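Below is just one:
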Amino acid sequence: MNIFGAFTFGSLIKTFLPGLVWLLAILMLEIDVARMLNVEPPLWTFVKTKDQAALVLAIPASILIGLISNIVVFMGINDWLVRIPVRRRNRDLCALYDALAQRIRERCWASLKDAAPGLKGAFDSNIDPEVVALHTIGVEKLAYLREQYWYHLEFQLNLLLSLAAMAVALVLLIVMSAASAELRAALILTCIAVATLIMAALLKAARKNYCRHVAKMASMMAAVLCPADSETLPH
């Protein structure tokens, strides 16, 4: 088994780029805090004095931070910002997906002749119909369907979070700058407005990608449930 199979170029980019933005935001926040405490920022000092080493270390650091961001996204942010709103606005599509998913489970459960009837509830709650369909459609096709929209959704949500952190760091940097109060206010409003527009666009794209992902998965399960041509053609 190739343990590095999941680390494709696309899967790394969707975590690396947001992780790089997170890393820059962390450096800026460190500078902000160091200014408030009137101390030397250690990370920024390391970057300035050992720039080549910092550049090399920035790549694995960005990937690691991106993976942590991805964990945070799937701990609840994805449900709050994407899944629940999409299901609320596309009730018919999601009801169709749920019905097809349940039919996949019922077909699978029917083949488990020796299973205890009391386990039916646990089976329906925990068995993933997309995984059940793997033996019919194959791993490569399912991976292709997921990559079409799901990877884009993860990238957009991770980038959204990193841009929010970057906006906070920029606002703090502006607040502590030596510019006039009027200029600081204008810069802060501009920063917030630009960040809000970009984040709103990313959120809209993420919701659209999730909706398309649900439609593709529903299509896949419908194809699995449909009888083969030999079963439907007249004899």
